[in-house]
Amino acid sequence: MPMRWNPEIHPDEITPEGLFRQRRQIMRAAAGVGVGALLGLDPWHALAAAGKDLPDVRSGVVTTADKETPFLSATTYNNFYELGLGKEDPAKWADHLVVDPWSVTIDGAVGRPGRVALDELLRPHPLEERVYRLRCVEGWSMVIPWVGFPLGDLLKRFEPGGSARFVAFETVHDPERLPGQSRDILAWPYREGLRLDEAMHPLTILAVGMYGKGLPNQNGAPLRLVVPWKYGFKSIKSIVRITLTEEQPVTSWNAHAPEEYGFYANVNPAVPHPRWDQSKERRIGTLWRQDTLMFNGYGEQVARLYEGMDLTRNF
Ligand code: MTE
Questions:
Q1: Which ligand 1 atom sits closest to the C-alpha of 192?
Q2: Which of these, 55, 117, 175, 308, has the minimum number of CB atoms within 10 Å of its CB?
Q3: Where is the Oxidoreductase molybdopterin-binding domain (predicted)?
Q4: Tens place of pLDDT for every residue, the chain, 315 residues?
């Protein structure tokens, strides 16, 4: 059962902090080696790729009591088409993504547009852990402890103008290194978008890490979006551009197959995808299927954003 949203409850109030961390590390290490071996991957590869230590991560809000997905599953079963179509490809080809140096352009309807080096972009934002469910449109789900900060805090710094209604995001475009971008799968670079009120919602974060460490490349290093009430494809990886717009931006999957992937992509068990039933999901690491929750269980926090909208048309 999902726990009721309570921003006041921190994981260290449920379990003493030291014990909580220790228990999680042991579980992760044990689970990771098993999954890696099953997939025929070197279990240490993903660990080695998993970025740097992060400074001062606060234990933030816990939005689910569900068991965390083992680290190795979350880092070896990925969707990142720039690094291949198979679920294990992104971990295998992770080194092709060069994340240092990295900068992000913030432009469009903002008072202070510019291209900012990653360090400078992150400096004012305290990092916190957010344990979120992630539901993929393909019918599987995970529970991931992200490390990040609210996207809204970053947007405010760049002063959104009165005409801004949407936020568009772009992934790095580097076909010489990213093998998937030479294939005609999507119109590259990968693009995503949110309505401005969705982007400003406190549950929407930019993640720079997971499981207490920097993001592995296969999970979207060095900076990715996480919107927990939407299907996983909205959570764009390896972001290099954030643009505030007046018009609804073009997004990759919606442009590719509009009848299959809506702009909103809110998790909705009542609206089936043409190829996947959305009423159930399989939690990675388990064999059975469980009910999918409206808005992925975050309805209490986000349903008001969609009041008066027909969610079968605006899927
Ligand atoms: N971002 C980019 N740039 N390219 C992608 O192929 N896949 C999306 C999303 N972000 C994708 C992306 C999809 S379909 C999902 S389900 C999530 O990333 C998966 O995130 P994870 O691999 O960290 O679980």
A1: 1
A2: 308
A3: 99-253
A4: 333 333 333 333 333 333 344 444 434 444 444 444 444 444 334 444 456 778 788 888 778 889 999 999 999 999 999 999 999 999 999 999 999 999 999 999 999 999 999 999 999 999 999 999 999 999 999 999 999 999 999 999 999 999 999 999 999 999 999 999 999 999 999 999 999 999 999 999 999 999 999 999 999 999 999 999 999 999 999 999 999 999 999 999 999 999 999 999 999 999 999 999 999 999 999 999 999 999 999 999 999 999 999 999 999
Please report which helix (H) or strand (E) contains residue 197, including its range: helix 196-200
Protein residue whose Cα sits closest to atom 8 of ligand 1 = 233
Sign of CA dihedral 222, 212, 205, 259: positive
Q: What Å distances lie between residue 55 and 52, 66, 171, 236, CA to CA?
A: 9, 26, 25, 24
Does the CB atom of residue 235 touch ligand 1 within 6 A? yes
79 lines ligand 1 (CB under 6 A): yes
26 within 8 A of 198, measured Cβ to Cβ: no
For atom 24 of ligand 1, the residue with the nearest CA is 78
* Cβ 115 vs Cβ 197: under 8 Å: no
